[in-house]
């Protein structure tokens, strides 16, 4: 991205011969895409080569003479003293020019000095800018001795404010001074009721449906004087709250800390003129702050320098149009309204044009937006009637209690948990009805057991932890998650609309070729004399060019220099039509080589018609052609592989660029976006200009066989239309952007991704994700991580629900097992159910949430986000596995009770052990062991929904021992399963503990039943997976083929798929075409 502060400050003293054909050594920062400025024009030096105050300005007094000795290790905002120019003494009547320019200084140059013993204050000419630019020359005069009023900085001079805040406007604060002020005044942020509070996390743990059911069970146990069971349930409740609180709070802190990585960054001048980047919340009063187009103003600033500076203050004033700022104006009194304080830039407003420097006069809650926030908070607390306020609090509390806050997936799963809670009540009613509503203590406990069995206790906690780990993993992959819903959604994207410069390419502009006619005449135009910047007509996405106007203080001539796209600049040249056509042809040839072509022009303006410098149309007409420069921005080395990976994954990549159509086409071929195997029917529309695309109606766009893969000369409106066209085709798209004008497209896209290095604050605020390295490959890694997260959520949800379904099947059918008194006997005791759900399943579910990405995760089409995690495959699998597990548990119970024990179920065996309960207690221990072992095996089986447990990763590991390698990858899950097997034995065999607490007893030969049920379960599950692979059901479409087969098949057709909806199954379509 071009630093807007450098656009008018680059000295062109370098001989143009450096741009001769074949030179590849001239580098400049790459321009932004579509809506941004091209690389800097070669412009004359301004006053001082560094920018800031011109050398002849009276502020450059004898005290320092611009020769302050400072370190040369970083960029500075400085001035330079020119020999041969008299120092002008500050007097009451002086009228001189101040030039605004922010280029980098030569090493050892000085800074903008605060005036020594100043007696004058600047008074702004207060001339409003035209539509295109603001003059850069402002007059100075007045009284500089006005004392600063801290409450009305707009009525004080910058120099008086600098004195008040003890800061030098050229040097800024030191790091030590800034740290002391930050410690004293606090961070520059608004205090609010948001963020993480320990009590809100605790309330979530206490107020969920599981805890409610457990509390009912605890109360029933105490009510029936079963103090042992009641105490154990109380301990389980406490343990669940403590563990859940610790995990949830840690996860929330992790997500909060990662979110802070995308916090706004401010540019300040500190440490003797060094330009530094700091977090916006570290700005302190007295800081010298630089802001430019796209920035969010970090604090209330009293401006003292600016160029074409405009801000949008709708947040504060309600004014929809940007406000032109007058930095040198000192208002006559303090009673001006907020919108009329044009020498101020207020916190949270956005810079829509130009650049400026100012002194921070208010931060945090002391800023204007902070005062408004305080007032709104007060109104929110005081507004409305008592009943309305109370009802609002009740609603907010109930939403928190029920978990109906958070991301869409969290809310959906909370609603699902509420549905299961309702089902639990229904099942309890079924239990009571089966006993003809003769509810004694045993029937009540049995009904509670069924209710506990149907609720997946750790569902929300595991989801929170999994998402926290996902955000941390993305941060390591240079992707910062700003909105958690994007973390859930990015895995389902079907189309990626990406910028070119800096994202697909390296963002390095190398001058490869140049056309400079009349080379000998150019140096006479660009010399080393002193120049004053009179006006700047900035780059705009609609005009695609930039013009600066300078005055040569030696010759008194006024020169205009213009740069921009060839199709914009060439029509304004003062040459014949044939010559224009020849230049256009040369532009086409250079663009066809993948070069970004800039056209440079110049003309001399009459020095006595200064008013015309503000008239953009007049300045940019009848220009003299200086030459063409072909800039090459090489693709990133990893881009080709990343694009290929997207194609294989069924994700289409679109390039939306501001470059010439032939340049864009050449780069698109180079990175693999455009395939040579493209059919003729699509070739005509695969590459279009924005004007061609925008000229089409919605119906015409929808009737296209495929949307264009490359759109050149793209505008912000074109990006929005592209997003809308993708949505009409049922696609789910990512849009990248970095400029202010990209915000609408970023907001409308399903996932908006802003550039962290070159992106504006406005773009970041509108985005869902931020790339810290501006690399397209990071987007692909984010998609892969999103798919991994989605897969893992499906895995642990399926595991938890399989456990619940099996227990419900077991307990409902178990109503038929009646003892000698006709009372239903528990196949599982209440505490056995709690143990399985709270201890065994929870850690397994957490381990599945940490599962690594499957090797074929980017060889499948995107999942349908509208369907969510509950796909038909998940629903069918969990029903088959759950019913199978519950049936095997019933079979084990029947074998022990009826096969060996003769069907004697004793009496009162639900309450405590007696001599008649041997069969029941041994059967319960067997069922407990079977259920535990099957759940442990299921944790490994659901690692992949269709691949065999013994062949999970055929690409990396083959043979009979491959299972051990693949199970060891996820060590957390491995040890959770191992611990689950190990802990089953003490629970069954510890004397007294087993009979009194769990109501089962030690077993012997029954282990054969346990092993037999485990083997039968593995056979059934593996057989179902084999059927899925054989018949191509769900993920079985891909699991039956090797990764190489899938990849090769997809690459063959990646350039010819219709693209009407990538979600419809690009991979399936590929396989059909092959067959």
TrEMBL record:
Catalytic activity: K(+)(in) + ATP + H2O = K(+)(out) + ADP + phosphate + H(+); Na(+)(in) + ATP + H2O = Na(+)(out) + ADP + phosphate + H(+)
Keyword ATP-binding: yes
Biased composition (Low complexity): 1-18
Keyword Nucleotide-binding applies: yes
Keywords from the UniProt entry: ATP-binding, Cell membrane, Ion transport, Magnesium, Membrane, Metal-binding, Nucleotide-binding, Potassium, Potassium transport, Sodium, Sodium transport, Translocase, Transmembrane, Transmembrane helix, Transport
Pfam families: Cation_ATPase, Cation_ATPase_C, Cation_ATPase_N, E1-E2_ATPase
GO BP terms, alphabetized: potassium ion transport
Transmembrane segments: 231-249, 416-437, 443-469, 796-818, 833-850, 880-901, 921-940, 972-990, 1002-1021
Chief location of this protein within or outside the cell: membrane
Obligatory cofactor(s): Mg(2+)
Taxonomic superkingdom: Eukaryota
GO cellular component labels: plasma membrane
Membrane topology recorded in Swiss-Prot or TrEMBL: Multi-pass membrane protein
SMART domains found in the cross-reference section: Cation_ATPase_N (SM00831)
Record's compositionally biased regions (Polar residues): 62-86, 117-133
Subcellular location: Cell membrane
Residue ranges constituting the Cation-transporting P-type ATPase N-terminal domain according to the UniProt record: 152-226
Chain segments carrying region Disordered: 1-86, 105-133
Record-listed E.C. numbers: 7.2.2.3
GO molecular function: ATP binding; ATP hydrolysis activity; metal ion binding; P-type sodium transporter activity
UniProt cross-references to InterPro entries, sorted A to Z: ATPase_P-typ_cation-transptr_C (IPR006068), ATPase_P-typ_cation-transptr_N (IPR004014), ATPase_P-typ_cyto_dom_N (IPR023299), ATPase_P-typ_P_site (IPR018303), ATPase_P-typ_TM_dom_sf (IPR023298), ATPase_P-typ_transduc_dom_A_sf (IPR008250), ATPase_P-type_domA (IPR059000), HAD-like_sf (IPR036412)
PANTHER family associated with the record: CALCIUM-TRANSPORTING ATPASE
Family to which the UniProt record says this protein belongs: Belongs to the cation transport ATPase (P-type) (TC 3.A.3) family. Type IID subfamily.
Protein name (record): P-type Na(+) transporter
Lineage, highest ranks first: Eukaryota, Fungi, Dikarya, Ascomycota, Pezizomycotina
């Amino acid at each position: 991205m071009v630093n807007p502060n450098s656009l008018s400050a680059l000295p062109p003293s370098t001989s143009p011969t450096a741009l001769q054909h074949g030179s590849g050594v001239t580098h400049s920062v790459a321009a932004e895409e579509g809506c941004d400025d091209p690389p800097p024009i070669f412009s004359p030096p301004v006053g001082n080569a560094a920018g800031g105050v011109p050398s002849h300005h009276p502020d450059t007094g004898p005290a320092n003479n611009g020769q302050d000795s400072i370190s040369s290790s970083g960029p500075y905002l400085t001035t330079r003293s020119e020999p041969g120019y008299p120092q002008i003494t500050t007097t009451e009547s002086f009228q001189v020019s101040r030039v605004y320019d922010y280029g980098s200084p030569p090493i050892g140059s000085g800074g903008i000095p605060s005036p020594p013993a100043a007696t004058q204050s600047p008074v702004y000419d207060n001339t409003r800018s035209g539509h295109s630019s603001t003059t850069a020359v402002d007059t100075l005069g007045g009284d500089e001795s006005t004392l600063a009023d801290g409450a009305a900085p707009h009525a004080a001079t910058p120099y008086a404010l600098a004195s008040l805040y003890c800061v030098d406007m050229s040097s800024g604060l030191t790091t030590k001074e800034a740290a002391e002020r930050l410690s004293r005044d606090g961070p520059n942020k608004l205090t609010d009721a948001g963020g993480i509070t320990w009590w809100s996390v605790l309330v979530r743990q206490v107020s969920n449906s599981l805890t409610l059911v457990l509390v009912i069970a605890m109360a029933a146990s105490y009510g029936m004087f079963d103090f042992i069971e009641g105490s154990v349930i109380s301990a389980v409740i406490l343990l669940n709250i403590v563990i859940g609180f610790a995990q949830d709070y840690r996860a929330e802190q992790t997500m909060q800390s990662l979110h802070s990585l995308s916090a706004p960054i401010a540019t300040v001048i500190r440490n003797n003129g060094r330009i530094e980047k700091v977090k916006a919340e570290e700005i302190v009063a007295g800081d010298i702050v630089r802001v430019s187009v796209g920035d969010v103003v970090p604090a209330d600033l009293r401006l003292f320098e600016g160029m074409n500076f405009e801000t949008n203050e709708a947040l504060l004033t309600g004014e929809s149009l940007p406000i032109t700022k007058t930095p040198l104006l000192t208002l006559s009194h303090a009673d001006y309204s907020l919108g009329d304080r044009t020498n101020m830039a207020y916190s949270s407003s956005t810079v829509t044009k130009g650049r400026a420097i100012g002194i921070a006069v208010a931060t945090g809650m002391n800023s204007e937006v902070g005062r408004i926030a305080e007032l709104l908070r007060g109104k929110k607390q005081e507004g409305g009637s008592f009943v309305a306020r109370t009802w609002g609090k009740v609603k907010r509390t109930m939403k928190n209690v029920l978990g109906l806050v958070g991301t869409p997936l969290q809310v959906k799963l909370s609603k699902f948990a509420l549905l299961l809670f309702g089902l639990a009540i229904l099942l309890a009613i079924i239990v009571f009805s089966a006993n003809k509503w003769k509810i004694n203590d045993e029937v009540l406990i049995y009904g509670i057991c069924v209710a506990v069995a149907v609720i997946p206790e750790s569902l929300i906690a595991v989801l929170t932890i999994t998402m926290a780990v996902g955000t941390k993993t993305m941060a390591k992959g240079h992707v910062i998650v700003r909105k958690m819903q994007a973390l859930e959604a990015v895995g389902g994207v079907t189309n990626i609309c990406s910028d070119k410069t800096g994202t697909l390419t390296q963002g390095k502009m190398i001058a490869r070729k140049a056309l400079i006619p009349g080379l000998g005449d150019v140096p006479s135009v660009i010399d080393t004399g002193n120049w004053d910047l009179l006006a700047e007509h900035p780059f705009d996405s609609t005009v695609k060019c930039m013009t600066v106007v300078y005055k040569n203080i030696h010759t008194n001539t006024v020169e205009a220099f213009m740069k921009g796209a060839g199709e914009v600049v060439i029509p304004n040249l003062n040459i014949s039509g044939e010559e224009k056509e020849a230049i256009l042809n040369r532009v086409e040839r250079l663009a066809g080589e993948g070069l970004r072509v800039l056209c440079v022009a110049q003309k001399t303006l009459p020095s006595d018609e200064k008013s015309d410098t503000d008239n953009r149309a007049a300045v940019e007409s009848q220009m003299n052609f200086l030459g063409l420069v072909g800039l090459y921005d090489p693709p990133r080395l990893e881009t080709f592989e990343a694009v290929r990976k997207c194609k294989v994954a069924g994700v289409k990549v679109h390039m939306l660029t501001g470059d010439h159509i032939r340049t864009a086409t050449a780069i698109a071929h180079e990175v693999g976006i455009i395939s040579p195997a493209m059919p003729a029917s699509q070739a005509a529309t695969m590459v279009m200009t924005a004007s061609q695309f925008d000229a089409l109606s919605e119906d015409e766009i929808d009737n296209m066989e495929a949307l264009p893969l490359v759109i050149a000369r793209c505008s912000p409106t074109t990006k929005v239309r592209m997003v809308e066209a993708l949505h009409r085709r049922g696609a789910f798209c990512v849009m990248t952007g970095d400029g202010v004008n990209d915000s609408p497209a970023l907001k409308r896209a399903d996932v908006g991704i802003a550039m962290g290095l070159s992106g504006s604050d406005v773009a970041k605020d509108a985005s869902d994700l931020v790339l810290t390295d501006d690399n397209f490959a990071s987007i692909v890694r984010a998609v892969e991580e999103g798919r991994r997260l989605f897969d893992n959520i499906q895995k642990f949800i399926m595991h938890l629900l399989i456990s619940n379904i099996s227990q419900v099947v077991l307990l409902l059918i178990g109503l038929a097992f009646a003892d000698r008194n006709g009372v239903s006997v528990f196949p599982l005791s209440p505490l056995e159910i709690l143990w399985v759900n709270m201890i065994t399943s929870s850690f397994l579910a957490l381990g599945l949430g940490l599962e690594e990405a499957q090797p074929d995760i980017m060889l499948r089409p995107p999942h349908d986000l509208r369907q969510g995690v509950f796909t038909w495959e998940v629903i069918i699998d969990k029903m088959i596995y759950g019913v199978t597990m519950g049936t095997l548990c019933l079979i084990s119970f029947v074998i022990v009770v009826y096969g060996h024990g003769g069907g004697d179920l004793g009496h009162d065996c639900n309450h405590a052990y007696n001599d008649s309960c041997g069969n029941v207690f041994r059967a319960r221990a067997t069922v407990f062991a079977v259920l535990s072992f099957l759940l442990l095996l299921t944790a490994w089986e659901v690692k992949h929904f269709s691949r065999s447990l013994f062949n999970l990763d055929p690409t990396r590991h083959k043979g009979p021992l491959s299972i051990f390698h693949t199970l060891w990858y996820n060590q957390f899950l491995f040890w959770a399963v191992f611990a689950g097997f190990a802990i089953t034995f003490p629970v069954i065999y510890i004397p007294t503990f087993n009979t009194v607490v769990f109501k089962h007893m030690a077993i012997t030969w029954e282990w054969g039943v346990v092993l037999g049920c485990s083997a039968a379960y593995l056979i059934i599950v593996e057989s179902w997976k084999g059927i899925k692979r054989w018949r191509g059901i769900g993920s079985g479409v891909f699991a039956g083929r090797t990764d190489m087969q899938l990849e090769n098949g997809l690459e063959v057709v990646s350039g010819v798929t219709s693209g009407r909806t990538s979600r419809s199954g690009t991979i399936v379509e590929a396989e059909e075409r092959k067959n």
